[in-house]
Amino acid sequence: MSTARQQLEAQRAEAERLRQRVAELEAQAAAEAPQVSEKEALGQSLEQLEALVQTKDQEIQTLRTQTGGPREAPDTTEREETQQKVQDLETRNSELEHQLRVTERSLEEARAEREQTRAEVGRAAQLLDVRLFELSELRDGLARLAEAAP
């Protein structure tokens, strides 16, 4: 977009320079009373310059249509609507940030609870292992007693 804009500005400057040159040549032609052949040469030169100016004007119009023309300032209602949309988006953003913080807090609490539950399950498993070992020892002891008894 910026290159199109630069081209547009360059074309405008060139068209303005050519207009000034045409005006200078017309003033010069009016001031001097050239001979007929010089008049024809100047006339041809003037026609060429006018054609070049028209070409540049067409290029400017083409560039304007490509860039969407000059940007117009938004009217008051558009500006207000845009401001309202921005304000609504900022409000929604704040709400989402709050929800995110609440969700993160809940997630951390759930993680802590899960770790606590894992620790309790680990302690219960160790206690169960100890009880199973004790029961196994007790069973072995009872089996020995039953074999020793007549």
Summary of the model, kept short:
The chain has 150 residues and is mainly alpha-helical. It has 3 helices and no strands.
Task: Walk me through what this model shows.
This protein has 150 residues and is mainly α. 90% of the residues lie in helices and 0% in strands. It has 3 helices and no strands. The protein has helices at residues 2-31, 36-67, 76-148. Helix 1 runs antiparallel to helix 2 (36-67). The longest helix is centred in the last third of the chain and has 73 residues, at 76-148. The protein is rod-shaped. The termini are far apart. 1% of the residues are buried. The model has no long low-confidence stretch (mean pLDDT 79).
How is the main sheet built? Answer: none
Taken as a percent bin, the fraction of beta residues is under 5%
Distance, first to last CA: 108 Å
**What's the SSE pattern?**
HHH
What is the number of helices?
3
Kindly state the number of beta strands.
0
**SS content category:** mainly alpha
Shape: rod-shaped
Helix content: over 70%
**Unreliable runs, pLDDT <50, ≥5 residues?**
none
* Mean pLDDT over all positions: 79
| Gyration radius over CA | 46 Å
Protein name: Homer scaffold protein 3
Region (Disordered): 61-118
Organism: Prolemur simus (Greater bamboo lemur)
Keywords: Phosphoprotein
